[in-house]
Each structure stands twice: as C-alpha cells, then as structure tokens.
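quick one before i forget lol
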Amino acid sequence: MNRLLNVRTLLNLLAIAIGALFIAAGFNLFLIPHQLLSGGVSGISMIVGYFANWNIGYLYFLFNLPILIWGWIVVGRRFILYSVFSVVLTTWFMQLLPSDNFNEDPLLGAVFGGVLIGIGSGISLRAGGSSGGFDIVGFILTMNRNFQLGTAIFLLNSSVVFALGYLFNWDLAMRSMLSIFITGKVVDTIHIRQLKITAFIITQFKEQIIERLHRMPRGVTLVKTEGAFTRQPQDMLMTVTTRYELAELRKIVREVDPKAWVNIVETVEVIGEFRRARM
C-alpha cells in the first residue's frame, strides 16, 4: 500500500511539473511579450513587472506566499504542498524560458496563452494541487458552493483586467479578458471535481459497499426495493459523488460485487449539504 501511495505521489508531482511548464510557457511565450495579463496573482505580478521592470517570475512567487499560507490553514496540507511545488517550478521555468515574441499577433497570443495556462492549471488541479494564486482562492470559495471552479477563477481575475485597462489601454484589457475566459473554460474541461453524479447500486453485499463508500468519504442512502419480475426484496444504495471520484466508485463495486447492477446519472444540482472531497 505504501509503495502504491509513493508511486501515486511521484506521478502527481510529475503531472504538476508538466502543468507548471505549460503555465510558464503561456506566460513567457504568449502573454508577457504582448504585455497581456493572465489575471489574478500572476496578473498583478505582470502589472508590477511591466511598470517597475522587475522580474515577473519572482513577483509571482512573492505574491503567492500569503495565499499559500491561507490555503494551508483552510484547505489542507497536501493540496498546499503540491501548490507550493507548482509555484516554485513555474517561477523556475519562467527564468529558463525566453520571454520573446513567439508570434506577432497579440490576439493569437491571448488565445494560445490562455489555452496553455488553462491546461497547466487544470493538470495541477487534477493532480491534487493548484498553480497558486486565485486558483486557491477559487477552490476555497467552491468547497461548499455549487458553481464551477473555472467560473469562480474567471470572476476573481476580471478585477485585475480592469486595472490593466485603466493603467494601460482597453485593447490590452479586452485581449487579456479573452485569455482569462479561455483559461477558465479549459480548466473546467480538465478539472471535473465539481461535476456531480448520482449512482444507484443494487447489490447483495450492501454492508461491504457502504463501508467502502464511507471511506471516500461519501454518504449513502439505503432504499428497500423489490424486483418487478422476481418479486424478491432487494437493497438499493444511492450516493452522490463527483465525476473525479467515479473511477474509485467503479473500483469499489467491481471488487465487492462484480454482479451488482449500477445506474449512474449526471446530477444537475445538489440542494443541501454535500461534502466536497478534500485535496
């Protein structure tokens, strides 16, 4: 078990490193050469860097520190350790990658920069960490609320864009808004933790499956049913979980009762208490 956990941790760290490389490439190759913003903490770092001609990578790390400390207190240790790893690597990659014009069209820079940053952020979130900044703030805001993480990050980042428009010009601000919007959509595509499903499980091994589901941890409702054809009483378990945890639910059912009947449907909304899996 410990060996499997170590392998999983190494794979998560590798994924976060790849995500950090995508984010740094989006910054240095597409946004910074055109003086565009990615929004949030990185956007604040870029505004300061453009004005003062300071190293944006170092500013990115410095401005992330207080948010990382807040996340350590509110979210959880592993999530923040992964996020620190991502922020440090992103800062390092920004020192290695050239900050030159990869393309001449700032609109294309906004689009491709947004895609790369969205891919990097989504990979980091999928691996159990984040790229820091407003990713952490957005995750905290969505822990017990029923809206998408990418949308939350987009709303938080929008405030930074208005500062860019006021200080520089509104063309840059609108291109930056496009980049941030694309980033949010890509994050929502990759990071599916906020998408919920409802599973109906008919099994002869209800106690074993309930015990395993409680470890996830997920609540389970036991429903007494009767087969319409056999007229035999049966037990049906109903549980609401996330798309991210669906693979684990399938694994539990297959290991405990391969003959179980399972119906999985998408859940539009959950009203009431819903425990979000902690990072």
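fyi The two ends are 19 Å apart (CA to CA).
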